[in-house]
Amino acid sequence: MKVIDTHIHYGTDPNVASSTCVPYLITGQPDSVIRMLDEENASHGVLFPHDRVMSPPWDADYDKANQQIGEAVLKYPDRIAGLARINPTFGAEHTQKLLRKYVTEWGCRGVKLVAGYDFYRPNDLKVVGPMLDICQEYDLTVLFHSGDAPRDLPYLQAQAAKAYPNVRFVLAHIGMHTYLHEAILACKEYENVNVDMAQAWPYDIRIFLNHVGMDRLTYGSDTPYQSPEVEQLKLKVIGLTEAEQEKVFSLNARRIWRIA
Ligand SMILES: [Zn+2]
């Protein structure tokens, strides 16, 4: 069975990261994404920029980083689903213009958000509403970094999902251990909330599946910060049937990320 990796960063900040788990994965080299997908037995990958503004911070709205995602998608449209890193505090007009451009020019499939780095609250609809309007209009999926206080918290993020019931949301890392049960609550209360298991502990993944069921969790490696081999092993040691493994490794991702 081929897997779908729903959490891949397109390299890191070379001025900050001294080493990574997948050192050959480098921004601006689409072939390195395909090499990584092949090595982890993945049919598709969901690709987005490094989470923080690259240093020096000339690319504050992530536009240059997003264009590099676009180049990779246009070179390998059958393997890579691309997301734009968005900072919605640039305001409605700027944010909507960027997102429309990405959708039109390279088929952008969703947005990656890190409220802690960009200083807003994910439940502040004045800030995130205009961006979510575009997500609704173009059927884009919203990926929240999730599990860091005080901004990147599952239950704050769930309020955005509550306000936009037709938009699909993903809380990365199942709330990063400390907020596991907030992520479980968010998924139980709102049908449009899902999670990826990147960086989560095997025990936490099992607890999540026990509470929420098999349809809302996807495999994600968080490459190049984590090892795809290790992240895949976590889903293989928690006693899933073959049919359940197929859901979390591939079928759920096809639905959440519109992969044919
Ligand atoms: Zn990540």
Characterize the main sheet: 8 strands, parallel
* H and E order: EHEHEHEHHEHEHEHEHH
User: What ranges have pLDDT less than 50 throughout 5 or more consecutive residues?
Assistant: none
Identify every distinct bound molecule in the structure, by name, code or SMILES: zinc ion
Domain unit count: 1
Distance between the termini: 16 Å
Q: Averaging pLDDT over every residue, what do you get? A: 97
User: What CATH architecture do you see?
Assistant: Alpha-Beta Barrel
Strand content: 5-15%
Total count of strands: 8
The number of distinct helices, counting runs of at least 4 residues, comes to 10
Q: Kindly identify the CATH topology.
A: TIM Barrel
CATH-assigned homologous superfamily? Metal-dependent hydrolases
| Classification by helices and strands | alpha/beta
Which labels suit this protein?
single chain; about 260 residues; alpha/beta; TIM Barrel; globular; binds zinc ion
Present the secondary structure layout.
Blueprint: E1 3-9, H1 30-39, E2 42-48, H2 63-75, E3 80-85, H3 92-106, E4 110-113, H4 115-118, H5 125-138, E5 141-144, H6 154-163, E6 169-171, H7 180-189, E7 193-196, H8 202-212, E8 217-218, H9 228-236, H10 242-256
Parallel strand pairs: 1-2, 2-3, 3-4, 4-5, 5-6, 6-7, 7-8
Helix pairs in contact: 2-3, 3-5, 6-7, 7-8
The protein binds zinc ion (ZN).
Residues 7, 9, 222 line the site of zinc ion (ZN).
